[in-house]
Every structure is written in structure tokens, then in C-alpha cells.
Fold this protein.
Amino acid sequence: MKIGILGFGKMGEALTEGLRNSRDSAQFAIQATTQSQQSAEDAARKLKINCHTQNTKLIQESEVIILCVKPHQAEKILKQHSGDFTSEKLLISICASLTTDLISNWSGKKAAVIRAMPNTPCLIREGMTCLNVGPNAKEAHLKMAEKIFNTVGKTAKVEESLMDGVTGLSGCGPAYIYLIIEALSEAGVKVGLPRKVATLLSAQTLLGAAKMVLKRGEHPAALKDEVTTPAGCTIDGLMALEEGKLRVTLIKAVLAAAKRSQSLRGSS
Ligand SMILES: NC(=O)c1ccc[n+]([C@@H]2O[C@H](COP(=O)([O-])OP(=O)(O)OC[C@H]3O[C@@H](n4cnc5c(N)ncnc54)[C@H](OP(=O)(O)O)[C@@H]3O)[C@@H](O)[C@H]2O)c1
């Protein structure tokens, strides 16, 4: 599959590295573009990738174009290249906030359009990507998108109206989790653990708990009950978390980021 990463920034790099380090890497031929010559040269040198600044060449030579620029940069670029986005192309936009209708209109309405919201752990093939199908996209296009994003993690198909919420949850979510790991690690230091050990304990505990949820498929509350012995230690820890309003704080974080994603459409 010939893939063009249009906008080789943080997320473009995460996707490319995830695909290139996968078992299926031979199936993907990747080229990428940046805006500045300097960024292209840096990427080409550092990551040994075919990275340049010619978007026309990238679009013409790719079956699948993954648009990875900032949301406010998308309109100008797509309109400039609307003649290149023919009906043979699959255009996957990972831009927060931008709807498939906007992407299709700006790119000339011929290409098949899919919207994706991945996250940075795609870099190590533990990403989470939500997909939704836009104008001209058929089942075969969705399969191609799933092939790409399943290679770098897990995928789910959702209604487009839910994509701002997805952005607030799994798109931005790694940042919330890093904060939680950092806080737990500080707690480890507070109880006397060396920082390196404290960070290992908090990150591995989070990983183990996340895998329990995914593998056992039970409600997280049932798994929490398993850890919580009557009159034991965990219930005291949980009480402190309830007092600190951890749950409602996390819910508010997702809602705030989702609202921001929604508001970006107004300024694009
Ligand atoms: N970061 C995340 O965790 C995340 C998660 C999900 C979705 N997203 C979405 O992914 C997109 C990119 O985010 P990011 O964090 O990766 O941004 P970023 O690091 O700023 O990368 C943007 C890239 O676009 C390039 N670019 C700008 N104009 C261009 C043009 N005319 N032609 C070719 N390339 C151009 C920039 O090149 P220069 O370096 O030369 O300026 C840069 O490499 C955003 O729309 C965001 O909503 C991000």
C-alpha cells in the first residue's frame, strides 16, 4: 500500500514509526512531506524516510494520503491540491475537529474520505484510533484504513457526531495518563522509593490494570472490588480519591477537551 503522510509532525512520525516497525512493514511504502525544507531534511536524516516538501508529488504517487497537518492548515492545503485528489485516492484526515464533509469539499469532492482520530501510542503499536466513513468512502476504503490503524494498535468505528468526544478521551488521553503516572510516581517518592522504581511501579500498575480490563472484559468496578478487601488498605486509598473528586475531574477533563475540539471548527 502506497501511503503519503502529508504533514510529518509528531503524529505523522508516530504513525510512520508504528507501521515501519510492525511485522507487516513490507506492505507499506511510505513517503512524507513537511512545510519547511529544514524539517524534511531533519526527518529524512533522523528517521531515514523519504521526506520532502512536494505535496503534489506525494499525492500523485500515493494511494492513501493521511492528512496530519494542524486543523487550521488543512483548508488551504486541500484547496491548493484539489485537482490532485482524484476518485482513485483515499484521503484519511486525522485533524481534530474537521468533519468529513469539510475535508471532502476542500479537496474537490472526488476522493474517498475517512476521518480518523488516533493517539501517540501508535508509535509503539499500542494506539487507539476511531474511524468514521465520509463522502465517497466504501467498505473497501474502510478496510484499508482499518488495515493501517490496526497495524499500529486497535480501532473502533464510531458515528461522526461522536468524534469530538473521542478526541477528548482517547486522542488527548495519553496526556492525562502521563499526569496520573507522574502523580503516582511522586507518591512513591514520598513513601521513600527511588524515583526510577516509583515510576516503574506506577506505569506497570497502570499497564497491568488496563490489560485486565481489556482481557477479562468485565466492568472496571467489578475488578476494583477484587482488589478491595473489607477493612483493608485499598478502601482507604479509594476514599481519598473520592474525597479528591478524581472521577468527576477526569470526566470534566474529557468534556473540556471535547468542547475545544468542537470550537476549533469555528476558527478553521
Ligand atoms: N498530537 C497528538 O497527540 C494528536 C492525536 C490525534 C490527532 N492529532 C492531529 O494530528 C494533526 C497533527 O498534529 P501534530 O501534533 O502531529 O502537529 P505537528 O507536530 O505540529 O505537525 C504538523 C506537521 O505539518 C507540517 N505541515 C504544515 N503545513 C504543511 C504543508 N503545507 N505541507 C506539508 N506539511 C505541512 C509541518 O511541517 P513543518 O515542521 O515544516 O512546519 C509539521 O510537520 C493535528 O491536526 C491534530 O489535531 C494529533
Q: What stands out?
A: The mean pLDDT is 96. The domain at 2-163 is CATH 3.40.50.720 (Rossmann fold).
